[in-house]
Specification:
This protein is α+β, with helices and mostly antiparallel strands. The chain folds into two domains: about 130 residues, Fructose-1,6-Bisphosphatase, Chain A, domain 1; about 110 residues, D-Maltodextrin-Binding Protein, domain 2 (3-Layer(aba) Sandwich). The protein is built from seven helices and 15 strands. The strands form three sheets. The protein has an eight-stranded mixed sheet with strand order 4-3-5-6-7-8-9-10, sandwiched between helices. Strands 12-11-13-15-14 form a five-stranded mixed sheet, sandwiched between helices. A hairpin with a 2-residue loop joins strand 6 and strand 7. Helix 1 packs antiparallel against helix 2 and helix 5 runs parallel beside helix 6. The protein is globular.
Length: about 250
């Protein structure tokens, strides 16, 4: 999808020339002119060809449409990584059709392109992908993420501390789309996180499900939604582990 390619090109251009950084909700939540330029480029491209579609973007775009199609975009997922030069960020473009996530494209730091179309499979640089075949949580590597507010991060750390002794290891990239793609192609065995926004989930969910995995979302009593992505054989064991760590899983 050339819109995601254009956003990824803007990321590269920003690293070459430099950019301004601003805080959003906290000292760990950033936005840059690159985020905004990438979103503007994606929105401009959509409107040029599909002016009746809806668009929802992280950097403020919220446009209703009449076609039944809505684009859900994160122009730069992993901004905190981007500003530090840590290689885990993505251009993310998802498409909902009649409210159902149906197309997803994620282009990461290295230009690796992962995409999925509901009912048609998922690929990574043109090669078909599938989730992990591992069936034992004790040998599984699980990825997760943390929110921006201190009290939320403290709760998430407590959950992680209960999970870590019961799995092989935990990873945290700082980009939900990056982690969802990793779960889709078996780089990690599963992924969970509380507090994701629609633009964090839409494209990655399509890729995971098109690859043959499962994505489950569960509202939490304290607010936010638990998102779990896993291969079929690990879903229930992981939900059980998360429940034991204090998260609502059903």
């Amino acid at each position: 999808m050339r819109l995601a390619e254009r956003a990824a090109a803007i990321h590269r251009e920003g690293l070459e020339r430099g950019f301004e950084i601003h805080e959003k909700s906290s000292a760990t939540d950033y936005v840059t002119e690159i985020d905004r330029a990438a979103e503007a480029a994606i929105v401009e491209g959509i409107l040029a060809e599909r002016p009746d579609d809806g668009i929802l973007g992280e950097e403020g775009t919220d446009r209703s449409g009449s076609s039944g199609v809505r684009w859900v975009i994160d122009p730069l997922d992993g901004t905190a990584n981007y500003v530090r030069g840590y290689p885990a960020y993505c251009a993310v473009v998802g498409v909902e059709v009649d409210g159902v996530p149906s197309v997803g494209v994620v282009i990461d730091t290295h230009g690796t392109r992962s995409e999925g179309v509901r009912g048609s499979g998922a690929t990574r640089n043109g090669t078909g992908i599938h989730p992990s075949s591992r069936d034992d949580l004790t040998s599984a590597v699980i990825s997760t993420g943390f929110g921006y507010q201190p009290e939320q991060r403290a709760r998430q750390a407590r959950v992680a501390s209960m999970i870590l002794p019961r799995v092989a290891d935990i990873r945290r990239s700082g980009s939900a789309a990056f982690d969802l793609v990793a779960a889709a192609c078996g780089i990690v065995d599963a992924y969970y996180e509380v507090g994701l926004a629609p633009w964090d989930i839409c494209a990655g969910q399509v890729i995971v499900e098109s690859a043959g995995g499962i994505v489950k979302t569960i509202p939490q009593p304290e607010g936010g939604v638990l998102t779990v992505a896993a291969p079929t054989q690990l879903l229930e064991p992981l939900l059980g582990l998360l429940s034991g760590a204090g998260l609502l899983t059903g």
